[in-house]
Amino acid sequence: MGKFKAAAVQMRSGREPERNVVDFEALVREAAARGATYVQTPEMTGAIIRDKADRAMAFRQEKDDVIVAAAGRLSAELRIFLHVGSTGILREDGKIANRAFLFAPDGSLAARYDKIHMFDVDLDNGESWRESATYEPGAEALVADIGAAKVGFGICYDVRFPQLFRAEALAGAEVLTAPAAFTRQTGQGHWHILQRARAIENGAFMISAAQGGQHEDGRETFGHSMIVDPWGRILAEADHDASGVIVAEIDTALSAEARQKIPNLKNAREFRVASVAAQPVMLRGAAS
Fold first, then answer.
1. Which residues partner with 207 through β-bridges?
2. H/E element, 250
3. Does residue 43 have an active-site annotation?
4. The pTM is what?
5. Domains of the chain with CATH codes
6. Of residues 43, 62, 168, 174, which has the active-site annotation?
């Protein structure tokens, strides 16, 4: 068990990684100056690009990525755990990964996580997304030890798949994460509920840095970066869609306390699902 100060960085990433890295560095420095020793940035920190040709021009392999390079340097300089919520990475096979990175306080790369669940949806008002047409999904969940806590990884749409976070909680995670670029439409409907639900059902902190506002490629994201405690209480929230930093104290003893009060992780039982064809029921109506 441990205590530490965590920060979630809210951004409005554009199409050019070289410009976004300037904002990234300034906001991470602000978080560290406010005492955070774990700093998380949103999904697609490096660039948000809808056009396929523009993505091909902007995304680089991990060894050449400007966000990866800056994150390694900053984590060592500021002596923090720096969690890049994700950025687009060109894989060696030519496919693109939506990849998160965790850098240790010595600047070393401690962990990687590729987003597992692809946002393939058709929403109201003609809003439609097909992430699987661009990104190669990951296949492995991740729990990383940052000393004061064990952190479980997710990215954006992953938050709608509770089995991922349950598996990470069962593997020891006291802090769960879902850095995101939630659309405004889905964010208004579900963002707060999903963050609090994942925290409550796992007795874990939930930390989710978000993209917010109108982006250069035309999309609009919800913002409202959030830190929630294991009882579902919102400890900190960016109550807007502008860039900024939120900070909260994390005490993993609260996770142990919540799990002791409501031990659903231990109480879960295996079961089967039976499918039974219902017999038709004839109803007698009132005489007419």
1. 177, 227
2. strand 244-251
3. yes
4. 0.93
5. 3-267 (3.60.110.10)
6. 43
- Check residue 288 and give its pLDDT: 46
CA distance 265 to 69: 38
- Give me the long-range contacts of 61-67 (CB less than 8 A, separation at least 24): 61/89, 61/90, 61/91, 61/92, 62/89, 62/99, 65/17, 65/89, 66/17, 66/18, 66/21, 67/17, 67/20, 67/21, 67/24
Two structure tokens written together for 194: 């999903």
**pLDDT tens track for 101-130:** 999 999 999 999 999 999 888 888 888 878
Both tokens of 20, joined, read 């976004």
Q: Which residues contact 130 (CB under 8 A, 6 or more apart)?
A: 118, 120
Concatenate the DSSP letters of all residues of 201-213 into one string. Answer: HHT-EEEE-BBEE
pLDDT tens profile 41-95: 999 999 998 887 788 778 999 999 999 999 999 999 999 999 999 999 999 888 8
The answer to whether residue 115 is catalytic is yes
- Grouping H, G, I as helix, E, B as strand and the rest as coil, residue 127 is coil
Indicate which residue of 62, 115, 168, 174 is catalytic. 115
The DSSP line for 218-242 is S-EEE---EEE-TTS-EEEE--SSS
The rounded distance, in Å, linking the Cα atoms of 173 and 168 is 6
Task: Look up residue 38 and give its two tokens.
Answer: 């774990």
For residues 149 and 4, the answer to whether their CB atoms sit within 8 Å is: yes
